User: Fold this.
Amino acid sequence: MKDVMAEKIPFKTAGKMVYDLDVSILDEKTRHAVVECVMSQKEAAGDAISAFQPSDNALQETSEERLAQILAAGDDIHGIASDRSISNVISFGLKKITDAVYSEKVNSDRSRVDQLFSELLKSVFESKAPLKVSSSGHFWYPAGSYMGWHTNSRVPGWRVYINYAEEPGKSFFRYRDPLTKEIVTLQDKEWNLRIFRITSEQPIWHTVYSDTNRFSFGYMIHQKAPANRLSGMLRKLFG
Assistant:
C-alpha cells in the first residue's frame, strides 16, 4: 500500500505480521520479466501439465475445518519441501522437491525476476543492517490445485510472494492470524504482492487454493551480519 511504502515495514517488529501490498509498486519492467518467466514455465512443464490431475479435495484441504483437524492432531507441517503430499502444484527448480521441473531457460528467466525484485523489496523494509533477498518456492498452480496448510516454521523470517493469476478472483491466499486466531482469506487479483513474518513462537498457518493458472515466486529476506560483528566471530573461530 502507498501508506506502507511511505512508512516502510520495520524489519524487526512485534506488530503486524501480514501485509497485502498495493501492486502499483511493481514497475512494468518487473511485470514483463514475470510474464516472460511464466511463458518459459508453460513450455518447460508441458509433460507435467499434461499429467496434472486436479484435486477434488482442494477446497477441503484449504478449509478452516481442515486446519482445525491438523491443530487438534498436533501436527507440525513445515512445507512442501519436507512433505510433498500437502500439494499438487507444479514446482520448478528445487531438486529436493519430488517431480520438480528443471529448465535452464526457466532458471535464467527467474534470475532476471529476482534481480529486479530484490531492490524493490529492500526499499520496502526499514532496517539498520543491510538486507539480503534470496529466492525460495517457485510454483505453477493450475486450475484445481492447492497448497495445504503449513507454517514454514523451520525457516523463520520474512517471506514474500509475488503472484500472477490469469483469472482474478478465482484463487486465494488464506492464513490464520497467530494473535487473534482469526482465519483471513485474501482473494487474488491479477497481480498480488504479499509479505508475512514467520516465527517459531507464533507460526502463521497458511494455505493457497486456485481454480485458474496462478504463478508464484517466493522470497526470503534476511539481515546481513554487520562487518565488525562478523570479524569478531572470525577472530573467535581462528584466534
Q: What stands out?
A: The longest strand covers residues 131-141.
